[in-house]
Fold this sequence. Notes:
Largest sheet: none
Low-confidence stretches: none
Distance between the termini: 15 Å
Amino acid sequence: MIFAGAAVQKFTGKVAPNWDRWGYSRRFMYATGIAEVVALALFWWPGLELVGAAALGLVLLGALATLIRHREGASHIALTALTLLLVLAQ
Length: 90
């Protein structure tokens, strides 16, 4: 699952150089990883699917804003945008 893998990368620090480059703290990186895990759990919890989808959507909106603001590659932006569209379709 994309979100579980993204959270693991944050908790292990693998993506820390990107967060540093974007001007975000490590604390915010870990908080985002926690938000992804919680949102993913809510997404799969019966009756809370819409709450989880909304939370995942918010995380993705933040990611998309960061990627656009820092002029990251088009493929990276497109993948994030596509993932957001898939979450919104749920």
